[in-house]
Amino acid sequence: MNRSLLVAFIPLVLFAAGETPRGFTGNIERLDPVFDRLVAPGEQMEKLADGFKWAEGPVWFDGALIFSDVRENTAYRWKPGMREAEVYLKPSGLLSPQAGVRRSLPGSNGLARDAQGRLLVAQHGERRIAGYAHGQFTTIADRFEGKRFNSPNDLVVRKNGDIYFTDPPYGLEGLDQSPVKELPYHGVFRVTPEGKVTLLAKDIAFPNGIAFSPDEKILYIGSTDDATPHVAAFDVNADGTLANERLFLDVGPFMKGADRRGCDGMKVDRDGNVWTTGPGGILVVSPAGKVLGRLRTGEPTANCGWGEDGSVLYITANRFLLRLPTRTRGAGW
Q1: Per-residue pLDDT averaged across 258-284, rounded?
Q2: Checking phi first, is residue 25 left (phi over 0); if not, alpha (psi -120 to 50) or beta?
């Protein structure tokens, strides 16, 4: 049996709407009148499914939403009209025993798609970026200069096919003290369609979410470092390398009370607004760095992604899968 796909398209009975032991209590906070151009007044987030351990990495792929549950080593599939999510990949990130892999976070994390029709997977357990097609995983990148990555976390695809990804140590037991950690830093990398891997940055404490501006001249990277949670911006040079690192968003002022979650996954809309996870849920930030509004999920929130016609935002918030219609569209739709 192919170990890369032990279970596929098996219905998973999750809690349906109104049947959860703890209901969804999210709301939308409007901080600037411009926000009404992005989300209609009166619009609310809708809960689609419940019961996950740590939902992550939503991507619209082949007419459906695919998303990870990192703790359960599973990727799920949901599409409009379904009352339940179904198992799409199990295992999703750890395919065979690996020394030093964090038992609580073995699965797939960030997901993306490429022009070849592959699902791209950041696999914690296998410590690589993989492609998935025709029922099999293939390695896209698992090493830099002969050393294994830590645990690739999130990724984004440039229009020319280059994959940019972050590599913090969250998938390793002991994190920085892990005996199987081979790289002395937490890098941001690029892998070309030909398989060449380049280190682009290594000074972000815990690089996590990653996204391009619509014109791909700026790369945004979120850091979950508890000491300085923020989103950094880099200029993208003509050769694809990065320059001019600068602070785009300091989320420290938003970390109050129960809102203590740093920056994780993010996406960008067609006008360059950044929709980044952070304290309280999703912060919606103008290209100039002004916070316009906040989608308060009431849960630690890992990531978001555009779907359907590009105007619908899907959100993975701890145990919940959520959906929000918007007045904009994702970059590239």
Answers
A1: 94
A2: alpha
- DSSP code at position 22: S
What is the rounded CA–CA span in Å between residue 109 and residue 101?
A: 14
CATH code at position 85: 2.120.10.30
Does 80 score more than 90 pLDDT?
yes
How many domains is the chain partitioned into structurally?
Answer: 1
Q: By C-alpha distance, which of 215, 135, 202, 125 is closest to 166?
A: 202
Counting every residue written for the chain, the total comes to 333
Residue 4 resides in a domain: no
- The Cα 52–Cα 175 span in angstroms is 24
224: left (phi over 0), alpha (psi -120 to 50) or beta: alpha
Query: pLDDT tens, 128-161?
Result: 999 999 999 999 999 999 999 999 999 999 999 9
Residue 26 main-chain phi, psi, to 5 deg = -70, 165
HEC string of 132-174 equals EECCEEEEEECEECCEECCCCCCEEECCCCCEEEEECCCCECC
Residue 1 domain flag: no
Q: Could you tell me the end-to-end alpha-carbon distance of the chain, in angstroms, rounded to an integer?
A: 38
The number of beta carbons lying within 10 Å of the beta carbon of residue 281 is: 25
5 occurs within a structural domain: no
- Domain range for 151: 10-15+24-325
Q: ∠252-253-254 over CA atoms, to 5°?
A: 90
311 located within any domain = yes
3-state class (DSSP) for residue 37: helix
Q: Kindly report the number of other CB atoms within 10 A of residue 192's CB atom.
A: 15
pTM > 0.85: yes
Q: Is the dihedral of CA 277, 268, 245, 159 positive or negative?
A: positive
* Residues pairing with 304 in the sheet: 315
pLDDT at 22: 61
Residue 10 pLDDT > 80, yes or no? no
pLDDT, tens digit, 9 for 90 and up, residues 224-233: 887 889 999 9
> Is it true that the peptide bond before 91 is cis, omega within 30 degrees of 0?
yes
